[in-house]
Hints:
Elements: E1 3-9, H1 16-24, E2 31-37, H2 44-49, E3 56-59, H3 67-77, E4 82-85, E5 91-92, H4 96-106, E6 112-120, E7 126-130, H5 139-143, E8 156-158, H6 159-164, H7 175-185, E9 191-202, H8 209-226, H9 231-250, H10 255-261, H11 268-283
Parallel strand pairs: 1-2, 1-4, 2-3, 6-9
Antiparallel strand pairs: 4-8, 5-9, 6-7, 6-8
Amino acid sequence: MPITIGIPFYNAEKYLLDAIKSVFAQTHQNWELILIDDGSTDNSLEIAKSVKDKRVRVYSDGKNKKLATRLNEIIQLAKYDIIARMDADDLMSPTRLEKQLKVLLDNPKIDLVSTGLYSVTNNLKPIGVRWHYSNTISYKDLLHKKGCGVVHAAILGRKSWFIRNPYDTVLKIAQDYELWIRASYKKDFKIFLMQEPLYYYREESSTTSKKILLAYSYDRDIYMKYGGNKNSQLIIKSLIKTGIIKILSSVNKVDLLLKKRSKQIKDEKLLSILDNEIKIIKKTKIPTL
């Protein structure tokens, strides 16, 4: 079955080619790749246009419309009924699409499939690994952010679900969390969470105090709307977390949060798989100008 893969990008010249290589390295090769520029001012667009393969489409209108708008545009542009997404500075396991697609096709009542992840440095050195403690997640667990939750950039799902549940384009950050809460609130969030780490998240420079604090502020808006009689409790918890981040930021220790998010990789088999798959991706050749 064909899959549409969508990668929105903004000033991602340093890592975009790696992300594209990981698409070409997939064991499942029946796909189209949509690369959509969000007004980049570096060489990202030139890199995207340099890929010469009939399965790859590049879109750019020169505007900076932010992530949520671009994700909605990918849904509208997609040719196929199954859509996968990833971020422009990350990579995915060569078996990611094959394994996720099998889960989706074997479970016709499921709309979405996500995976576990490896947290890696900008140079793809392992930081840790994480996955949700269960294959499912409840509305309550989403609200309380219990467990590792849903890996947004590792989502593969049915186009019909994304059409029913578009991203909120008002939000600059936390678009994924708001979407999960909103869909779960209306009982339209049938998701399977694979625990296998099939996504490689460059987390080293993406977790900044500014982004975290902004996300927490949006979280509080979400709690006001969907938290019900628990919204006060959730908001207080968020404010406490905000205070902790401010303290960590003042002493340049926000990286402690990054280390806490993921488990240290002690399993030599996991380390071997990660190392081998990164080598496969790096060696993958793509047709370019």
